[in-house]
């Protein structure tokens, strides 16, 4: 595996790989776990070469968020990528990514406005900006993102369609199913922040979500099912919820009652100092 930190050598290396067939990009912020590895395996199944980027993007963190403490285990990450058969690790320097005088932001409206877009102002502008730059730097034929960050995937799909970003003309953005621990907790680099007791309580999140989905499938009004979910999480040690909402799976329009289009339950909740997010499909009415 080549590890490259500067743009010119990256472009030469990608040009050399391109002759072998399609190139897949898996953008990450590092602190890799099985969820990332499932993206890489999916990418390897479809492309001749997989390029993984690791870049803790300062522009998607709010002023009071965890940019300084975000885990950066680069040696362990690099060993995992090597073992997965990744061809190239793109490890850009923050100063090269956003040099002095940098002044451009990519902003997506609609799908980026609600849920984490409302709770974390500027977050999706940071994501859309860095993903645009990563796509332009690498020029991938396809790119892979986790469904754990469903709204991020929706924002990137919208942006790629709107800006004709991916080569060739047809966007090839793949979403890969969330990987979960045995107790149902979705894998996330931020799970490392949880103390042992918080980690045990965190499993209430997927459990309460499954119960809410079952209640809705059995005919409970959305409002009642979501209120029960909220109370369950607060009783289980979560301190607050940013949101617990049902939204259209594609447009992210709010759903307050059954609707024929596929919908998902989205939750962001805080336990200790950690903010956890998750989303799950509603069960289609029989
Ligand atoms: O999901 C992530 O890890 C990040 O938001 C991404 C897509 C790598 C952009 O920084």
Task: Please state the CA-atom Rg, rounded to the nearest Å.
Answer: 19 Å
CATH topology-level fold name of the largest domain: Rossmann fold
Spatial separation of the terminal alpha carbons? 49 Å
Q: Strand percentage, roughly? A: 15-25%
* Ions, cofactors and other bound molecules: pantoate
Notable traits:
286 residues, alpha/beta, Rossmann fold, Pantoate--beta-alanine Ligase, Chain: A,domain 2, 2 domains, three-stranded antiparallel β-sheet, 10 helices, 38% helix, binds pantoate
Note down, in words, how this protein is organized.
With 286 residues, the chain is of the alpha/beta class. It folds into 2 domains: 2-176, HUPs (Rossmann fold, 3-Layer(aba) Sandwich); 189-279, Pantoate-beta-alanine ligase, C-terminal domain (Pantoate--beta-alanine Ligase, Chain: A,domain 2), CATH 3.30.1300. Helix content is 38%, strand content 19%. The chain contains 10 helices and 9 strands. It has helices at 7-18, 34-46, 74-83, 94-97, 116-119, 123-138, 150-163, 196-202, 204-217, 222-235; strands at residues 2-4, 23-28, 49-54, 88-90, 142-146, 173-176, 240-248, 263-271, 274-281. A 6-stranded parallel beta sheet has the order 1-4-3-2-5-6, with helices on both faces. The longest helix is centred in the middle third of the chain and has 16 residues, at 123-138. Pantoate (PAF) is lined by residues 27-29, 57, 60, 127, 130-131, 149, 152.
């Amino acid at each position: 595996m080549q590890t490259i930190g500067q743009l010119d050598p990256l472009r030469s290396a990608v040009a050399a790989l391109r002759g072998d067939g399609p190139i897949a990009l898996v953008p990450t912020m590092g602190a890799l776990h099985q969820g990332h590895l499932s993206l890489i395996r999916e990418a390897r199944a479809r492309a001749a070469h997989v390029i993984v980027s690791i870049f803790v993007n300062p522009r998607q963190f709010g002023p009071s968020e965890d940019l300084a403490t975000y885990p950066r285990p680069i040696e362990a990450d690099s060993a995992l990528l090597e073992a997965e058969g990744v061809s190239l690790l793109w490890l850009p320097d923050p100063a090269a990514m956003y040099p002095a005088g940098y002044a451009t932001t990519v902003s997506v409206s609609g799908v980026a406005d609600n849920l984490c877009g409302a709770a974390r102002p500027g977050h999706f502008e940071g994501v859309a900006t860095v993903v645009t730059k990563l796509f332009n730097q690498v020029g991938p034929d396809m790119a892979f993102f986790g469904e754990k960050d469903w709204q991020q995937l929706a924002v990137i799909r919208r942006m790629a369609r709107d800006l004709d970003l991916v080569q060739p003309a047809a966007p090839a953005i793949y979403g890969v199913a969330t990987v979960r621990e045995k107790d149902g907790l979705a894998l996330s680099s931020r799970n490392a922040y949880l103390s042992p007791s918080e980690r045990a309580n965190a499993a209430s999140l997927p459990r309460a979500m499954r119960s809410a989905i079952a209640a809705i499938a059995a005919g409970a009004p959305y409002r009642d099912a979501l209120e029960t979910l909220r109370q369950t999480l607060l009783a289980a040690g979560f301190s607050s919820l940013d949101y617990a909402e049902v939204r259209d799976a594609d447009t992210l329009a709010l759903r307050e009652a059954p609707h024929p289009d596929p919908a998902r339950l989205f939750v962001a909740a805080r336990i200790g100092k950690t903010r956890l997010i998750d989303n799950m499909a509603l069960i289609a009415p029989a």
